[in-house]
Design a protein that fits this description.
The protein has 112 residues and is an alpha+beta fold. 20% of the residues lie in helices and 37% in strands.
């Protein structure tokens, strides 16, 4: 099992969620986060004062998937979340040692 973690632009969430549903992903966790990469934020003007926005809003998706679904999930997120501009995000894949469904006690792939 793997944990796929993706940082995406907030306005891409609905498209990514729908596309993942089309490939069989039935659940995920979404968190509002802030961060920056190469784009290093930007400058904005508010009431005549200029200020730097260092950390930009992003969404963090966390999806537990069986090993044989990982590549399909990565490609789906990559294709759907891409806008072609800097700051589209990143995808990280890590090993899941154990997954347990709290309600039933199921473990492993059935618990996903």
């Amino acid at each position: 099992m793997k944990l796929v973690t993706a940082m995406i632009k907030p306005f891409k969430l609905d498209d990514v969620r729908d596309a993942l549903g089309d490939v069989g992903i039935t659940g995920m966790t979404v968190s509002e986060v802030r961060g920056f990469g190469r784009q290093k934020g930007h400058t904005e003007l508010y009431r005549g004062a200029e200020y730097v926005v260092d950390f930009l809003p992003k969404l963090k998706l966390e999806i537990g998937v069986p090993d044989d679904h990982v590549e399909r999930v990565i490609e789906t997120i990559r294709e759907t979340a891409a806008s072609g501009r800097i700051g589209d995000g990143k995808i990280f894949v890590t090993n899941l040692e154990r997954t347990v469904r709290i309600r039933t006690g199921e473990e492993g792939d059935p618990a996903l």
